[in-house]
From TrEMBL:
Belongs to the glycosyltransferase 2 family. Pfam families: Glycos_transf_2 (PF00535). It comes from the Bacteria. This is Glycosyltransferase 2-like domain-containing protein. GO terms for molecular function: hexosyltransferase activity. Gene3D superfamilies: Spore Coat Polysaccharide Biosynthesis Protein SpsA, Chain A.
Amino acid sequence: MNQPKVSIVIPFYNCPYVDQAIESALQQTYPHVEVIVVNDGSTRHSEKILPYMHRIRYMKKGNGGTATALNMGIRYATGQYFAWLSSDDVFDRDKIAKQMAFMQSRNALACYTSYRLIDAQNRILGQYPSVWVADRILFFERMKHHCLINGGTVMLHMDIFQQVGLFDEGFRYAHDYEFWLRVLLKHHFLYLQEPLLSYRVHDQMGTNKYSRQVIAEAALVQQKYKHITIRG
């Protein structure tokens, strides 16, 4: 099997768990990965990155939000595939290997998986199976009402960014939701029903701290795509 390089992009902003995220990316069993950490203007916890500097590609910028950090990482990536790891989450060691094998066996350009929930002490809270519909048109219609994809489970071929563009930096909180819908206009996501990501639930997580903004932006995304349909 061909083993193309995968660029794992880790946006970082004041997250105390960033060392665990980096460690999980560097410990992948898949042999060809590059780990790109984009410091989005952090004022705390940057020292946790220092032990890994010789093993990662490190970039620093002013604070602009997750979409801006992701886009910077994508622009500098040298891999043929992209994976996104939030700085408070953790990849399973075989996440990239299993997802790559699954995608290549089906000639897929986009894929996501299920995931498990963990707490601040890495205790498992439960497994979260994602929703998937085999028909792309029906899945798009479901997605227009609710985001069904966890960004940390996604792996994409870099060609997708050439076709649909990067994350929309105008959405500070719902950039991922908008992007998945844009991808679905051209390609379907395959779904690997195996938890390969540990998604951390904690008091300082963005979806909790900025829940009102997340809901408001999701509504804007839904309004943007409300009247868009995919023709069979």
